[in-house]
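Title: [Solved] SRPBCC family protein 3D structure

Original question kept below for reference.
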Amino acid sequence: MELDHRFELPVGIDRAWPMLLDIATVGPCFPGAELEKVSGDEFSGSVKLKAGPVRLSYRGQAKIIERNDRTHTATIQATGQDSPATTAAMLVTATAAEVAPGRTLVDLRTTLALTGRPADFTRPLMISVGNDLVSRFADCVSTKLVGRASGGAQLIDVENPDEVAADREEALAHPGGGTGPNRGTGYRPIAEFSVDGRPASGLLRKVLPAVLAVVGALVGWALLRRRPDEPDSGRGSASD
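Solution (posted by the thread starter after getting help):
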């Protein structure tokens, strides 16, 4: 599954980007997670989650695979595991850009793969939970910057690569059939998602958010790990 989120910070890029790199300040915006080890650009940690009768304890790792301070982008690869059968893998690309004086937009593109129990409710719940997680992070960072929330995050797009491939194959096999707005995109509006006939948003209080909180925290650790005054190793630097 691929999720695109966007949130705004009410400051310029010269304040927003250093803040996002200051783990001492922004780290607490990821509640429930504990960073256990940092070794260069590799990180490990754990998080314990509980929702109703469901309990999971994840351990995970993350690594910065690309970072460019000039274009304000970073790509992070993260994994988490509760048991051999319950795992998560995530690739996140974060981009920050100043769109006006005192306004910085942050875009997150997340590719997520799950196995085990969380995969049973991945599509409807992870979309809502992912939006909630990013919104909480955005509001927390904004509050630290200017003393007020930013208004949360916006879900820009949802895409399932398997559905994209299936839609394209069907379109090739039946070129004259189906012209709906979602055909060939693997995308469905969030309002359409349900589990057992119930809206997905109503289940958030009953079903565990699971892996997104874990890998979200790992992504945060990776993205925020370096302080502004630390020299860049040159990874992912822009070409001349």
